[in-house]
Amino acid sequence: MKLALITGVSKGLGESIAKLFLESGIHVLGVSRNVNKHLEKVAASNQVKYHHYPCDLGSMNELEETIEKLKVDIASYDPSLLYLINNAAVIDPINQVSNINNRDLQYHIQLNTVVPMILSNQMLNFTSSTDTTFICVNITSGAANRPIYGWGLYCSSKASINMYTKTAALEQDILKTGNKIIAFNPGIMDTSMQQTIRSSTKEAFYEVEKFKGYKESKQLRSTDTVGGILIDILNDEASIENGKIYDVNEYV
Ligand SMILES: NC(=O)c1ccc[n+]([C@@H]2O[C@H](COP(=O)([O-])OP(=O)(O)OC[C@H]3O[C@@H](n4cnc5c(N)ncnc54)[C@H](OP(=O)(O)O)[C@@H]3O)[C@@H](O)[C@H]2O)c1
Which of 45, 112, 124, 147 is the most buried if burial means most Cβ atoms within 10 Å? Predict the structure, then answer.
């Protein structure tokens, strides 16, 4: 039996991935601060289970408490395959680096870098003592590959997660565990993160007009389309390339 653990399930890409897993008969454990009632209904109509863990991932205490609850619940499912989708992330603070407040910096790195690292470490460790195969997807961004004025933290946190993906994957290859860790760049999507980006000032975010143009010219993809592409990649399990940084643009 397959089980998926997904962060950031309340909206956006995380909600779509959770919905698509549930519709394909995979049980889902979802983590976010806000509840998503729709996912409960999708689970019920597909005869699968959905469990929500309310958690502010910006708090180390809440994260650690949630991981302990997750371990107990995952063990009770005894899955043959566990997916971890590290999706929750923030774009804020958007600002030139010299204007970034220390606390905002710490929160951003906790959410975008520390949480996915801890969750993948903990789940790798946890599944290593069972017969469960582990497949981890870290949601990344094209921003990992180029500097963007005003996105110093976001570019750095996503670049960091790409290198962590490659390193953890290399270790699993050498250890011959069969576990796989990949990253997936979903491209630009019509979500609240893009609303935040468009609401920036030109002083804080030099390319703001370009991003307003993406919305006006309908270039932002739907999260269901992008989520479907990721599910197709995961469904072809034998072809998943451990350590690869997948890019949605190679599939559309
Ligand atoms: N949108 C794009 O154009 C785009 C482009 C490239 C990459 N990405 C990446 O795609 C992923 C999904 O982005 P999205 O656009 O779908 O984002 P979104 O619509 O802003 O949704 C973010 C999700 O993360 C959760 N989250 C945020 N802060 C949290 C916290 N402190 N604790 C727990 N959960 C938290 C939110 O849940 P709660 O608020 O309920 O906690 C929400 O479910 C991210 O990794 C993002 O970097 C997005």
Answer: 112
> Per this entry, what is the length of the chain?
252
Domain 2-92+101-187+222-250: homologous superfamily in CATH: NAD(P)-binding Rossmann-like Domain (3.40.50.720)
- Other CB atoms within a 10 A radius of the CB of residue 204 amount to 16
Q: How far is residue 194's CA from residue 198's CA, in Å, rounded to a whole number?
A: 6
What pLDDT is attached to residue 233? 98
The amino acid sitting at 208 is: V
CB 50 within 8 A of CB 18: yes
Residue ranges of the chain with per-residue pLDDT less than 50: none
pLDDT score at 209: 98
Report the SS3 class of residue 9. Answer: coil
Provide the 3-class DSSP secondary structure of residue 134: strand
Kindly name the residue from 50, 53, 83, 154 that is annotated as catalytic. 154
Whole-number Å distance, alpha carbon 87 to ligand 1 midpoint, is: 6
Amino acid in the structure at residue 89: A
CA-proximal residue: ligand 1, atom 41 (nearest): 33
Q: 41-57: b or e for each residue (b if 16 or more CB lie within 10 Å)?
A: ebbeebebbbbbbebeb
CB neighbour list of residue 83: distance below 8 Å, 6 or more residues apart: 2, 3, 4, 5, 6, 21, 26, 135, 136, 137, 234
Active site residue 83: no
Alpha carbon 141 to chain centroid, angstroms:
10
DSSP 8-state code for residue 95:
B
Kind of pairing between the strands at 2-7 and 133-139: unpaired
Instruction: Tell me the domain boundaries of the chain.
Output: 2-92+101-187+222-250
Strand partners, 139: 184
